[in-house]
Amino acid sequence: MSNRHFCRIIAMQILYQSDFKSAFSLRYQKIKDDAEIIKKKLEAKVKDQTSGNSDHIFIKSLISGIIDNIKKIDEIIAEYAPEWPIEKITIVDRNVLRLGVYELKFNDNIPAKVAINEAIELAKTFGGEKSGKFVNGVLGSIYKEISR
User: Is the pTM of this model over 0.85?
Assistant: First the structure.
């Protein structure tokens, strides 16, 4: 398993934890309010499970980028999955999509196909039976739009 793939797994797990805890509160504000808590969890998890500073920096950039753009990211997901309100998407799929959308739309350092493939792999590994297809469909539609 590549270091970056492992970093994405950690980022998705941290986002999942935060989202799960804030499921009954105001989603965006709660995630923003929990930013410091998320960063502390990130520090502990990264120290335990990563091999170097570059991994740490990559995970922090993913988490920070998603938190800073969460409302825009969720609007993009809602636009490309209109039959699935964001709160009805499973927590795993929602956070895998957030990661994928962030890398597709907000991070120019990650090739689009890498972002999509990584998100699909995360969905297949951690999501349900149809998660990979769902994530592929949403991110594929976004990719078609941005590559025009």
Answer: no
Structure tokens at 81: 């999955």
Task: Name, in order, each residue with C-beta under 8 angstroms of 25's C-beta and a sequence gap of 6 or more.
Answer: none
**CA–CA separation, 38 and 106 (whole Å):** 20
Distance CA 89, CA 68 (A): 21
Name the DSSP letter for residue 51: S
**Spatial distance between the Cα atoms of 83 and 72, rounded to a whole number of angstroms:** 18
Spans of the chain below 50 pLDDT:
24-26
Q: What confidence score (pLDDT) does residue 57 get?
A: 84
Q: Per residue in 2-17, pLDDT tens? A: 688 988 998 898 888 8
CA 4, CA 140: separation in Å to the nearest integer? 21
Q: Residues for the chain: how many in total?
A: 148
Phi first, then psi: give them for residue 13, nearest 5 degrees: -65, -40
Averaged confidence pLDDT in the chain: 84
Could you please report the per-residue DSSP string of 97-138? Answer: HHHHHIIIII-TTS-HHHHHHHHHHHHHHHS-TTHHHHHHHH
